[in-house]
Specification:
Belongs to the OSBP family. Helix content is 36%, strand content 25%. It has 758 residues and is an alpha+beta fold. It has a 7-stranded antiparallel β-sheet with strand order 4-3-2-1-7-6-5.
């Protein structure tokens, strides 16, 4: 009982009046027959009743939420409250009957308000862009509610005044009676308190009336401001739509232009004119002598000035491939790259195997994301059970493999004699891995523990890749790629993600290692944070932000890349990336610029000097550079990509069935295959079956670990099949690296050692 009394005191101290928007306090919640009623901290806000184990948990973990708009409120006895909504029921107990009545009053008021809000939303759901008339109706409706509330308060005031006057009359009559002196003093004190209470209630009513007058005064200004914002938004959307149409037409014209030139070699006059026209356009681009870059946090701000020498020239047309896996000899026209970077071996021109170019169109199923995510605020995304409606038919292992979309950058880097030029290409490769994410707002499937994915492109592009899910909580995947063209890449990535209510932060943890066989150069870098915006309202969009430091651990050369976060008020190009490549002494040699969703260029620095102070008081470094040269250009998306999850040409082939792959390969995952075929209901059922099977296996391992501990034995726990933990000699970190055996097992077609996870 002392604990209950304590809970009641806490609730009384923490909770405002039941009529306010938020009500908080301690209640006892029924858990089970073993533990009975447990003390929990409840918060009533915006028509939702949420509870936590402690007040401190409000910052990160919600134990449960019930929507009062559809809830039934019942009182069993003097102190009990029963809330039921759908299949969820809360049995609650207050410490006192008075406390119970406060909560019931607050719950009833919140329920009525939630029902009104729900009805208002349903009335407005068909009108995505309300007109000014609806704006006025909404404001007037709000004012009517305020008026009705004021009327209620006035009624309460009249009642208080009436009962207060009756109370004072009774007290005056008592004072007239012949009572002891002590009793008369107490009656007088009570009379004074009643008078003070009446004065306070009148002041409250007057304050509410003043508020209503103020709201009426400002309503016109609010209405004008709201209408202006809506017009600006409509204008902005129309402008963006026009720009998108222009962009598409220009992109189509660009794709058709090389074909027209190449099919008319016998028309030198036309070619000459076209070349001259292109050169004229490029010269106009260089009329802007100065290009400004954002300052990076750990280096001074800088400005690049393009040198205008007559001997310099730029290419007349793009030399970048227009399809996934473009021929490496498309890169051989770069002017300031060493000739060794542009050598092309004959084996790279072998004919390629025909692979699929489309997947079934995405079905148009509607689902309310907020209805699922509202109970998951602050939780780890990998622990939230999500239907396939929010997924794309690829696993996280396949998304990791998509980093190889622009593998030819590494093929070219492997042929470079200059480590500085090699660093520029490695930096471009690190940026290119984000280009596929710009439209990919769907969530990949969480891999099952022990799931693998192989991508064998040795015959076409000289490399083969293997991924394995090595841990489930936290989710971690190990990746190993080896290329016959002179490089090896490996990484272990752990995805940490948090849902913040309005946006979702995805933080890849772990380092990416890249080693070139001939030079022994080993590069190490880490990924930046990805953010998915507009989780609740509006169209989903993705941004990348943060810094990447690429280090060549053999030569100690570095590249500092900055991914600028999007800002509505910034004049910079959206998705901007800038960087500087420096030698071991910190001397800058190249400036990198571009966007992570389109292209990256490099400019060789020929002179640097200290300039004036910038707007933030920092001294800027002025770099005089040669004309920028393209390092990487994004391939255009396949036709009809918007109906195929915005997959790139490589992504369309990742789930294509192949013979001989391991029995744990993501291509064989049944729920993922069903989703790709458009059978989402079956995919959801299959996904639940696989997840429950994985939980059963985990419970069995935990039971085995407990038994081993009781018997004093050592329990090894789960060990990945194709990767093992080793300490990296360069960075000193311990991570999972490929231990071999997979490709040999594939040749033998012996998968007897693989677990049955599907």
């Amino acid at each position: 009982m002392s604990e209950q009394g304590k809970g009641s005191a806490s609730a009384s101290a923490a909770a405002p009046a039941p009529g306010s928007d938020t009500y908080k306090g301690w209640l006892f919640k029924w858990t089970n027959y073993l533990k009975g009623y447990q003390r929990r901290w409840f918060v009533l806000s915006n028509g939702l009743l949420s509870y936590y184990r402690t007040q401190a948990e409000m910052a990160h973990t919600c134990r449960g939420t019930i929507n009062l708009a559809t809830a039934h409120i019942d009182t069993e006895d003097a102190c009990n409250i029963v809330l039921s909504s759908g299949g969820r029921t809360y049995h609650l107990k207050a410490s006192t009957e008075v406390e119970r009545q406060r909560w019931v009053t607050a719950l009833e008021l919140a329920k009525a308000k939630a029902i009104r809000m729900m009805n208002d939303q349903s009335d407005d759901s068909g009108d995505e862009e309300p007109t000014s008339q609806s704006d006025r109706s909404e404001i007037q409706g709000t004012l009517k509610i305020l008026v009705s509330k004021l009327d209620d308060l006035s009624t309460c005031n009249d009642l208080i005044a009436k009962h207060g006057a009756a109370l004072q009359r009774s007290l005056s009559e008592l004072e007239g009676l012949k009572v002891p002196v002590e009793g008369g003093e107490k009656i007088k004190a009570v009379n004074e308190r009643a008078t003070l209470f009446r004065i306070t209630s009148n002041a409250m009513i007057n304050a509410c009336r003043d508020f209503l007058d103020l709201a009426e005064t400002h309503s016109r200004r609010w209405q004008r401001a709201l209408q202006y914002e809506r017009e600006q938004r409509t204008h902005l959307e129309e402008t963006i739509e026009q720009l998108a149409k222009q962009h598409n037409s220009l992109e189509r014209a660009w794709r058709e232009a090389p074909t027209l030139v190449s099919t008319t070699p016998s028309a030198p006059t036309t070619n000459k004119g076209g070349s001259g026209r292109l050169r004229k356009e490029e010269a106009s681009d260089e009329d802007e002598d100065t290009e400004y870059f954002d300052a990076m946090e750990d280096s001074p701000a800088f400005i690049t000035v393009t040198a205008t020498e007559n001997t310099q020239h730029r290419r007349s047309q793009s030399n970048l491939s227009g399809a996934s896996g473009g021929q490496p000899n498309d890169w051989n026209q770069d002017d300031h790259m060493s000739p060794s970077c542009n050598d092309v071996s004959g084996k790279e021109l072998q004919p390629r195997r025909q692979r699929r170019t489309h997947v079934p169109d995405k079905p148009n199923y509607s689902l309310n994301l907020w209805s699922i995510m509202k109970n998951c605020i602050g939780k780890e995304l990998s622990k939230i059970p999500m239907p396939v409606n929010f997924n794309e038919p690829l696993s996280m292992l396949q998304r990791l493999t998509e980093d190889l979309e622009y593998h030819e950058l590494l093929d070219k880097a492997a042929r470079c004699d200059s480590s500085m030029e090699q660093m520029c290409l490695v930096a471009a490769f690190s940026v290119s891995s984000y280009s596929t994410t710009v439209h990919r707002t769907a969530k990949p499937f969480n891999p099952l523990l022990g799931e693998t994915y192989e991508l064998d492109r040795r015959e076409e592009f000289g490399y083969r890749s293997l991924c394995e899910q090595v841990s489930h909580h936290p989710p971690a995947a190990a990746h190993h790629v080896i290329s016959q063209r002179g490089w090896t890449l490996w990484q272990e990535i752990t995805i940490a993600s948090k849902f913040r209510g309005k946006y979702l932060s995805i933080m890849p943890l772990g380092a990416i290692h890249l080693q070139f066989h001939s030079s022994g150069n080993q590069y190490v870098w880490r990924k930046v944070t990805s953010t998915v915006h507009n989780i609740i309202v509006g169209k989903l969009w993705i941004d990348q932000s943060g810094d990447i430091e690429i280090v060549n651990h053999r030569t100690k050369e570095t590249c500092q890349l900055k991914f600028s976060p999007y800002s509505y008020f910034s004049r910079d190009v959206p998705r901007k990336v800038t960087g500087v490549v420096a030698d071991s002494g910190g001397q800058a040699h190249y400036v990198l610029s571009g966007t992570w969703d389109d292209k990256i260029e490099s400019a060789k620095i020929i002179q640097s000097s200290r300039g004036g102070s910038g707007s933030e008081g920092k001294q800027k470094t002025v770099y005089q550079t040669l004309s920028p040269k393209p390092l990487w250009k994004k391939y255009p998306l396949p036709e009809n990509a918007e109906n195929m999850y915005y997959f790139s040409a490589l992504a369309l082939t990742l789930n294509e069935q192949e013979d001989g792959v391991g029995v744990t390969d993501s291509r064989l995952r049944p729920d993922q295959k069903l989703m790709e075929e458009g059978r989402w209901d079956e995919a959801n059922s299959e996904k639940q079956r696989l997840e429950e099977k994985q939980r059963a296996v985990r419970r069995r391992r935990e039971a085995e670990a407990t038994d081993a501990l009781d018997e004093g034995k050592e329990y090894e726990g789960y060990q990945p099949l194709w990767f093992h933990q080793r300490r990296d000699s360069v960075t000193g970190e311990t991570n999972f690296v490929y231990k071999g055996g997979y490709w040999e097992a594939k040749e033998r077609q012996d998968w007897s050692m693989c677990p049955n996870i599907f």
